[in-house]
Amino acid sequence: MTFPLTFTSLATLLMQVRGAWLRWLGRTHGAGMAKKKPLEWVNFLMAGRGEEQGTAPLPPIFPALTPARAWAMAGATAMSDSARDQRADHRKPTTFLMAGRGEEQGTAPLPPYHLPVLPAEVERWMDAKSGDVIIDGTLGGGGHTSLFLQKGARVLGIDRDPEALAYAGKRLAAYRDALSTFQANYSQMSEHPNLPESGQVQGILLDLGVSSHQLDCAERGFSFQKDGPLDMRMGPNAEMTAADFVNAASEAEMVQVLREFGEEPQARRIAHLITERRRKTPFTRTGDLASCIESALGRHGRTHPATRTFQAIRMRINEELSLLHDALEAAVRCLAPGGRLLVITFHSLEDRMVKQFLQHRAKPYIDDPTWPAPRDNPEYHLTLPVRKSISAGSAELTSNPRARSAKLRVAVRNHRKLETP
Ligand SMILES: C[S@@+](CC[C@H](N)C(=O)[O-])C[C@H]1O[C@@H](n2cnc3c(N)ncnc32)[C@H](O)[C@@H]1O
Q1: 187 CA to middle of ligand 1, Å?
Q2: CATH says 37-213+319-421 is which class?
């Protein structure tokens, strides 16, 4: 007897919940989003995830702020006034960051290069002030640096990629008196002649990995989705190309690289495959390497089977982990007491290294089971204002899917003097 009543109430309740959900979607994301089916939502949330996250990008369903779109908006194109107003609030800063602001230079905007991740969080934790000296160890398209320059800070922008330096230099030409650029590895940050003495820098940023420009440009050879020369060098100072490595490394070395830098469970199989295939024809193209791996391993799920191999080779070619460790050491030497170190990572290997380094440097005492008592940590030079990593919020994930795997860690230099070697 109670069944029809319960069923009716349940149906009414469900309709009310659905109505509220659709109204919320309409309010927050525009009417188009309210029409999505559940599966489309999943696709939307996953859309555009790049190779760094180990998945192939999907075409975005919602008109998220892709580089091309940011570019179009910066050029104030055909978008209607009402549509522009609707989106203006959270898109304006992104457009500014992405598009190289023509108004800074009084010239037409530059083509899109890279949309910086976690801009609000970087701005907040860097807390740049007029007169501060800041090192941006990964200048890229200059998006983060522009935030520091606007606050009146002076910036040393380092990148190993001359294309990045040329782009950012042009983009930020209006700040030429406050910006010095340096083509180098970030581990060499203290070597620039214009830098004040060690221990006088108020902030250092490392936003690791490759830029969207590097990844999207087939000629740079980072992508397994766009055929190009098998290169993967972030800058000309890398000692070899990916083709050099793939065609010359021993099978054992390749297994080790795939395991260590790619955490690839199929390392042995892939290394054997590569060494067998190169006997007949050496590898010269990214597409060739990717399809060779795919044809042997097959494709299971969304992740391309060459994802981890490409990450591992890229990290080997650019010596990413060893340079990162050296850069963290150099950063501690450069920072003034109270100076901030911000590091953004995109995968677990980097994040583990940064986390362990910062945690060790933030311990006043160290202990060992063989010691009678804890000892002073001679490397205690940092404090951690936030112990956990900081991730992007949902608004940013909507406009920049690349931010999905970004983790920001922050440390502050304490007053303890460095021991001279
Ligand atoms: C993620 S992008 C940085 C984007 C930048 N924060 C922006 O707002 O446009 C990383 C940049 O760091 C550079 N890079 C990577 N490893 C480096 C290293 N060891 N030394 C110097 N630059 C490096 C890359 O060439 C790339 O341009």
Answers
A1: 12
A2: alpha beta
209 lines ligand 1 (CB under 6 A): yes
Give the pLDDT of residue 370: 97
Treating both helix axes as pointing N-terminal to C-terminal, what angle do 143-150 and 81-99 enclose, rounded to 10 degrees? 90
Please state which CATH class domain 239-317 belongs to. Answer: mainly alpha
Residues of the chain with CATH 3.40.50.150: 37-213+319-421
pTM of the model: 0.77
Distance 210 CA to ligand 1 centre (A): 6
Provide CB contacts within 8 A for 198, sequence distance 6+.
190, 333, 334
Q: Other C-beta atoms within 10 Å of 44: how many? A: 19
pLDDT digits (tens, 9 = 90+) for 5-27: 455 566 556 656 555 554 554 44
Atom 22 of ligand 1 has which residue's CA nearest to it?
Answer: 159
Look at residue 254 and give its three-state secondary structure: helix
- Mapped onto helix, strand or coil, the DSSP state of residue 345 is strand
pLDDT digits (tens, 9 = 90+) for 282-330: 999 999 999 999 988 888 888 899 999 999 999 999 999 999 999 999 9
Average pLDDT on 23-35 reads 42
CA of 390 to the centre of ligand 1 (A): 19
Q: Is 119 in the pocket of ligand 1 (CB under 6 A)?
A: no
